[in-house]
């Protein structure tokens, strides 16, 4: 004998079912309406009033069938809440993902969905909801979707889930009402699951079918496809919408309007009495036309919700159960709005339930009895029970809708899963040649989970009275790395400079100081690794940078002004080919630098067209001479320089220019030696161009000079 209760918004249905070898027999049914609005949208608001109705049904059935102490009940499907969740985990540098890692990630996503659900009601907490199931919608590695995370590697793994929850308040208020009626909950199921189990067995769930349970206050919807239930939904409109339309149209008290609504299904002419006491007979078709707008609104709301739940597509068929499904023309209008043939939307009574025998013929086509009978059968076949476990000493009661695991217990206990894994060790952030490099610390360890003293995992099954202890995993260690591990291999080059061999290695600096490759790096270290690239950098690294000066144009400073001689510079050759200081070099190159030649004062003066001398040609006694006079002098550091003195690159010189004085006759004696002819007197005559002149007579280029000696006078 199975005693089941369907506690609805308007009424409570009690049913006695007898099972024999897998066949079910309806023994008795008692229906009693609530005297007050004790229920609202499937949720018990007045526990005392609901318990009184349950007690009345219990007493009635006990008089016929004996004592009843245990009952099967259902939680309203409209109480189910569905939420999406997502969780990410860094797997950079971590070994391959294990089944345990993936389970942890899925549970973390479920918990995130649980917290999102709780945030929608400020007075709720996440563990005030039972998770009654979840399904993974997407796995990702580094943002790319992937079929399975196990044995995968990358930088970040993530998972998206859709989780279904039932508020604990729904179950607790149901338990309280039963206890007041001196009943113990034998098993619990969900109303949509109950109706689905008896009308759409698993073999039919590969079909895309919508089941709509139209009650008094709400219409519950469940969608099947691909072998499972893919969605639950609820519309806050049902049979009361039609009742209220009749009440408004014909001025009827609500109970009389409810009776008139039921007569629409049975009679062609409905007799009604309005609140003024006038009795009227209304043809069925006329009454349906009067409430046509309300029927349309109900059909529209249900069809829109079906389309929303079914990814905006019409299902293959729609099954209607519940008292509200008897609303006139509702199946026809639903078919129109869902663009389905009329024979694809049908009201199903308990005669559609397999392995069920009904003695009373009039009951067979009553759709309002499908859910109560489904509760009785489903609660017996797939009962949902409570399991009590202890998590770190805290007593937790779980809603046993599936094979429960340690992960479910942790969710119910409100333990934040993301805090169970050890924190990763602090990273070490360094800069290498201006580029920031992060060296991660070691990963935190997973938590240690014990069930009854033995090691367990998140997906280890649990049973009643299990003792679960979970300890946070150890934190990871701070990152440590040697400089050689960061740099890997360093290049080495061998070159020859002016016949001397050199080995070139990179220069490694840490925070500006030379360090060895064994140095352990610290956070925020600035590493500079420099390998000479050009010949100029090569000469600097080998301390041959003095050769660079030879490659520059010859330069002096003259009277404070810099003067450059581009044509006077050294030359450089790489493997016999002339090159420049910015030319790159390779391993095995031969570099030859030819130094600048030193220059003389005379060469400097000639290059800058500076005249150091003033010269004129003259003829003396028939022989040609060139008279030269110094008209400019160079000094270096105050020292007078001669014309053949060497000048160095970047010397600072001074040049003093003298005023040009004309040559005079006596200047010739610096170039010739005059001897007095034998027999001549000491007297003479000076001639310039044949004319007598003096020692101080200015000379011009080409002048002819003579000295005429007089003979001695004879005594």
UniProtKB/TrEMBL annotation:
Domain spans labelled SHS2: 2-199
Electron transport recorded as keyword: no
Keyword list, A-Z: Cell cycle, Cell division
GO biological process: cell division
InterPro entries (alphabetical): ATPase_NBD, FtsA/MreB, SHS2_FtsA
SMART domains (alphabetical): FtsA
Pfam family, one: FtsA
Domain of life, source organism: Bacteria
Entry protein name: Cell division protein FtsA
């Amino acid at each position: 004998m199975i005693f089941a209760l369907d506690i609805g918004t308007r009424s409570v249905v009690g049913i006695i079912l007898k099972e024999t070898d897998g066949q079910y027999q309806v023994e008795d049914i008692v229906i009693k309406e609530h005297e007050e609005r004790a229920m609202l949208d499937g949720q018990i608001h007045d526990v005392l009033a609901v318990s009184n109705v349950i007690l009345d049904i219990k007493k009635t059935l006990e008089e016929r069938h004996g004592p009843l102490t245990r009952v099967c009940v259902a939680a309203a499907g409209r109480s189910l809440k569905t939420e999406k969740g997502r969780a990410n985990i860094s797997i950079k540098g971590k070994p391959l993902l294990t089944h345990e890692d993936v389970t942890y990630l899925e549970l973390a996503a479920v918990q995130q969905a649980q917290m999102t659900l709780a945030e929608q009601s400020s007075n709720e907490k996440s563990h005030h909801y039972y998770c009654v199931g979840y399904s993974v919608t997407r796995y990702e590695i580094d943002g790319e979707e992937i079929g399975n995370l196990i044995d995968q590697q990358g930088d970040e793994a993530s998972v998206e889930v859709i989780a279904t929850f039932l508020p604990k308040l729904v179950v607790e208020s149901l338990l309280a009402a039963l206890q007041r009626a001196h009943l113990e909950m034998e098993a619990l199921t969900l109303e949509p699951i109950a109706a689905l189990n008896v009308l759409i067995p698993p073999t039919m769930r590969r079909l895309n079918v919508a089941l709509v349970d139209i009650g008094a206050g709400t219409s519950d919807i469940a969608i099947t496809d691909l072998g499972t239930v893919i969605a639950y939904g609820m519309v806050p409109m049902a049979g009361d919408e039609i009742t209220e339309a009749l009440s408004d149209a014909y001025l009827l008290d609500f109970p009389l309007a409810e009776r008139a609504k039921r007569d629409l299904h049975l009679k062609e002419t409905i007799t009604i009495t309005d609140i003024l006491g006038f009795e009227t007979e209304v043809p069925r078709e006329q009454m349906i036309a009067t409430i046509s707008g309300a029927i349309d609104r109900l059909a529209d709301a249900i069809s829109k919700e079906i389309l929303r739940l079914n990814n905006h597509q019409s299902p293959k068929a729609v099954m209607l159960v519940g008292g509200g499904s008897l609303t006139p023309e509702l199946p026809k209008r639903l078919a129109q709005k869902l663009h389905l043939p009329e024979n694809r939307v049908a009201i199903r009574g308990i005669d559609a339930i397999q392995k069920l025998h009904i003695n009373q013929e009039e009951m067979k086509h009553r759709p309002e009895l499908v859910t109560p009978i489904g509760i009785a059968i489903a609660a017996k076949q797939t009962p949902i029970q409570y399991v009590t476990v202890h998590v770190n000493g805290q007593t937790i009661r779980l809603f046993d809708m599936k094979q429960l695991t340690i992960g479910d217990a942790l969710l119910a206990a409100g333990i934040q899963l993301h805090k169970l894994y050890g924190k990763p060790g602090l990273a070490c952030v360094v800069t290498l040649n201006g580029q920031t490099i992060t060296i991660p610390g070691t990963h935190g360890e997973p938590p240690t989970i014990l069930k009854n003293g033995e090691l367990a995992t998140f997906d280890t099954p649990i049973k009643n009275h299990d003792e679960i202890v979970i300890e946070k995993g150890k934190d990871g260690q701070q990152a440590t790395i040697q400089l050689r591990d960061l740099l890997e291999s360093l290049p080495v080059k061998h070159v020859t400079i002016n016949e001397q061999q050199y080995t070139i290695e990179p220069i490694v600096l840490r925070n500006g100081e030379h360090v060895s490759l064994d140095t352990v790096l610290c956070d925020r270290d600035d590493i500079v690794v420099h390998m000479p690239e050009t010949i100029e950098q090569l000469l600097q690294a080998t301390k041959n940078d003095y050769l660079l000066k030879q490659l520059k144009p010859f330069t002096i400073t003259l009277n404070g002004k810099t003067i450059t001689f581009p044509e006077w510079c050294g030359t450089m050759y790489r493997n016999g080919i002339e090159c420049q200081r910015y030319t790159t070099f390779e391993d095995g190159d031969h570099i030859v630098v030819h130094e600048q030649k030193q220059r003389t004062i005379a060469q400097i003066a000639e290059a800058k067209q500076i005249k150091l001398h003033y010269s004129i040609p003259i003829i003396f006694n028939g022989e040609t001479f060139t008279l030269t006079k110094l008209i400019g002098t160079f000094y270096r550091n105050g020292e007078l320089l001669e014309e053949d003195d060497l000048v160095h690159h970047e010397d600072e010189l001074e040049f003093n220019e003298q005023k040009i004085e004309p040559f005079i006759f006596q200047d010739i004696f610096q170039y010739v030696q005059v001897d007095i002819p034998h027999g001549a007197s000491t007297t003479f005559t000076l001639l310039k161009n044949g004319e007598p002149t003096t020692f101080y007579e200015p000379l011009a280029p080409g002048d002819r000079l003579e000295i005429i000696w007089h003979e001695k006078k004879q005594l």
